[in-house]
């Protein structure tokens, strides 16, 4: 029995030792300053196409130039990031605008610091789209009445946007049946006929298109011209305590966004380092726009839509949320 | 007998793999969503050649091992204390029955709030889920102590510690071992689920990235890895159990045949 316990303990030690290098955070530490004046800050994000500028900016040295070292924590969904930032687990996070408005309206103390991504603003050529199967009888957003439409999260940005598309096409959004489905499962669900349409983003959208699916509307384009879709944000407490770090993060992120927007090929290449998108799919992916500044009018439009659709406990304060 | 079992097992696996190859090839399921075995095998080989895969595997195993050790030690110690101290069992019974069925996954928002998406949040889930397995088995094990044996030990003047060591522990050990074996499997499931849902570093997070990337063969390759891990852990736990209980009639009976 004793020998057994020793073996077990040794095994556990070995496992721990072999895992010294963690795949998530190479040099994990809280926001402590090191001697050369660089500060390590944690950033919580979802490893998707949208956040390419941050990875690119890190590689290009835009963050280190401003004295920041990013320690990226990946989360599988935006839902994990807002509480993580609010509770101080990560000083900075990435989340979509409606999620931030919902959080702000519920009294979660958060503050946007920098733009995240924006729609391309071009109908049928956006990184998000309402797609239908090849040969579907659904030809426009109005035809979605009475149909089953897959969206990634109910009562969030994509529901707002799809409802707006239906409304703009002259349909009644209340007649659309929304079902919740992860983006990556949408191509199969559409193909198998479990849903009539899906509001998908890249790279799932590229997969759908490669199977002959048709994009019938670009919901984020219908919300506003050049809709700001997601933002980088921090907690109000962190902003008060470390205004200098927030400012550095803002400047470095703005630079990274501008660079990625101007160099889409480099952005595409960096995506292969943190996702597993196959090269054949990546070539077909429509990249979002990465303007340095958020478009306030579009955020107000999303706030108004969310309000109409009843997502908020009370009216969110867009001015208080924005930097 | 043993050889025949192994041959049958291999044949079953081969049939399963062939089926996995054939179904997409003949078009019963779409190749895009369910790649054939050979394609998954290729992605699997690519994974094995990738250094980041091994760190992810290490992360998952760390979460699993630490979580299991914490849960098992806590479960055994608390289980013995609760059973030995008078009235404690009765006083805690309803609380335990209330807490036990709470699915660990429901604690994900709490874990994220407390620890963000890192090892500690995975540990919270793993420990919570596997602790009850060990605790309940320990409680049952201690209850199973033969009162005559206990009385005999008492009349021979054995103290509390000696009775725990020589009467209670040998009786409870088979139960505890069952608890640990169940906990080992549950711990792996929760470690991977936690990583998958929260994004804490590990195999689960890697599966999530593959899913988000439309990299279907890679996703299945990683799922195969988790299956193999589960299999190894189960075999390992059974070996440990058999060796720890080599003296016990349930194991001895098996060997004597």
UniProtKB/TrEMBL annotation, chain A:
<keyword id="KW-0732">Signal</keyword>
<comment type="similarity">
    <text>Belongs to the bacterial solute-binding protein SsuA/TauA family.</text>
</comment>
<feature type="domain" description="SsuA/THI5-like">
    <location>
        <begin position="50"/>
        <end position="267"/>
    </location>
</feature>
<dbReference type="InterPro" id="IPR015168">
    <property type="entry name" value="SsuA/THI5"/>
</dbReference>
<feature type="signal peptide">
    <location>
        <begin position="1"/>
        <end position="19"/>
    </location>
</feature>
<protein>
    <submittedName>
        <fullName>Nitrate ABC transporter substrate-binding protein</fullName>
    </submittedName>
</protein>
<dbReference type="Pfam" id="PF09084">
    <property type="entry name" value="NMT1"/>
</dbReference>
<dbReference type="GO" id="GO:0042597">
    <property type="term" value="C:periplasmic space"/>
</dbReference>
TrEMBL record, chain B:
<keyword id="KW-0813">Transport</keyword>
<dbReference type="InterPro" id="IPR000515">
    <property type="entry name" value="MetI-like"/>
</dbReference>
<comment type="similarity">
    <text>Belongs to the binding-protein-dependent transport system permease family.</text>
</comment>
<keyword id="KW-0472">Membrane</keyword>
<feature type="domain" description="ABC transmembrane type-1">
    <location>
        <begin position="57"/>
        <end position="241"/>
    </location>
</feature>
<keyword id="KW-1133">Transmembrane helix</keyword>
<keyword id="KW-0812">Transmembrane</keyword>
<feature type="transmembrane region" description="Helical">
    <location>
        <begin position="219"/>
        <end position="237"/>
    </location>
</feature>
<dbReference type="GO" id="GO:0005886">
    <property type="term" value="C:plasma membrane"/>
</dbReference>
<feature type="transmembrane region" description="Helical">
    <location>
        <begin position="172"/>
        <end position="193"/>
    </location>
</feature>
<dbReference type="InterPro" id="IPR035906">
    <property type="entry name" value="MetI-like_sf"/>
</dbReference>
<keyword id="KW-1003">Cell membrane</keyword>
<dbReference type="GO" id="GO:0055085">
    <property type="term" value="P:transmembrane transport"/>
</dbReference>
<feature type="transmembrane region" description="Helical">
    <location>
        <begin position="64"/>
        <end position="86"/>
    </location>
</feature>
<protein>
    <submittedName>
        <fullName>ABC transporter permease</fullName>
    </submittedName>
</protein>
<dbReference type="Pfam" id="PF00528">
    <property type="entry name" value="BPD_transp_1"/>
</dbReference>
């Amino acid at each position: 029995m004793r020998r057994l316990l020793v073996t077990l303990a040794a095994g556990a030690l070995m496992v721990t030792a072999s895992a010294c290098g963690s795949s998530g955070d190479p040099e994990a530490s809280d926001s402590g300053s090191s001697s050369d004046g660089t500060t390590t800050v944690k950033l919580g994000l979802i490893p998707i196409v949208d956040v390419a500028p941050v990875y690119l900016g890190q590689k290009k040295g835009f963050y280190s130039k401003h004295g920041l070292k990013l320690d990226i924590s990946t989360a599988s969904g935006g839902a994990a990031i807002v509480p993580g930032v609010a509770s101080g687990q990560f000083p900075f996070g990435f989340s979509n605008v409606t999620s931030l408005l919902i959080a702000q309206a519920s009294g979660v103390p958060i503050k946007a610091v920098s733009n995240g991504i924006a729609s391309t603003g071009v109908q049928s050529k956006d990184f998000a789209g309402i797609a239908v199967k090849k040969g579907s009888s659904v030809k426009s957003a109005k035809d979605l009445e009475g149909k089953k439409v897959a969206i990634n999260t109910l009562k969030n940005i994509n529901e707002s946007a799809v409802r707006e598309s239906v409304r703009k096409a002259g349909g009644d959004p209340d007649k659309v049946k929304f079902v919740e489905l992860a983006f990556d499962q949408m191509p199969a669900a559409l193909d198998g006929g479990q849903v009539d349409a899906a509001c998908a983003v890249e790279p799932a959208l590229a997969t759908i298109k490669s199977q002959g699916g048709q994009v019938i509307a670009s919901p984020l384009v219908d919300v506003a011209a050049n809709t700001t879709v997601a933002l980088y944000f921090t907690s109000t407490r962190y902003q008060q305590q470390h205004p200098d770090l927030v400012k550095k993060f803002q400047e470095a992120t703005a630079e990274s966004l501008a660079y990625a927007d101007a160099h889409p090929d480099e952005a595409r290449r960096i995506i292969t380092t943190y996702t597993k998108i196959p090269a054949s799919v990546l070539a077909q992916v429509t990249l979002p726009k990465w303007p340095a500044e958020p478009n306030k009018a579009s955020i107000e439009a999303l706030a108004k839509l969310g309000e109409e659709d009843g997502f908020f406990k009370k009216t969110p304060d867009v001015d208080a949320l924005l930097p | 007998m043993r050889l025949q079992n192994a041959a049958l097992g291999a044949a079953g696996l081969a049939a399963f793999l062939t089926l996995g190859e054939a179904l997409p090839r003949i078009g019963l399921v779409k190749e895009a969503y369910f790649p054939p075995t050979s394609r998954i095998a290729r992605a699997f080989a690519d994974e094995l050649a990738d250094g980041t895969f091994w760190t992810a595997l290490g992360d998952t195993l760390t979460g699993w091992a630490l979580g299991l050790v914490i849960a098992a030690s806590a479960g055994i110690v608390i289980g013995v204390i609760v059973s030995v101290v008078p009235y404690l069992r009765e006083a805690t019974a309803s609380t335990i029955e209330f807490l036990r069925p709470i699915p660990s996954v429901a604690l994900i928002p709490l874990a994220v709030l407390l620890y963000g998406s890192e090892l500690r949040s995975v540990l919270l889930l793993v420990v919570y889920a596997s602790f009850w397995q060990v605790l309940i088995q320990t409680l049952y094990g201690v209850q199973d102590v033969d009162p005559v044996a206990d009385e005999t030990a008492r009349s021979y003047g054995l103290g509390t510690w000696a009775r725990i060591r020589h009467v209670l522990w040998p009786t409870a050990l088979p139960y505890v071992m069952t608890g640990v074996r169940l906990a080992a499997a549950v711990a792996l499931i929760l470690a991977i689920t936690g990583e998958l849902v929260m994004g804490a570093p590990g195999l689960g997070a890697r599966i999530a990235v593959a899913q988000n990337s439309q990299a279907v063969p890679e996703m299945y390759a990683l799922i195969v890895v988790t299956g193999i891990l589960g299999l190894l852990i189960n075999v390992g736990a059974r070996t440990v159990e058999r060796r720890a209980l080599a003296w016990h009639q349930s194991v001895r009976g098996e060997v004597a045949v």
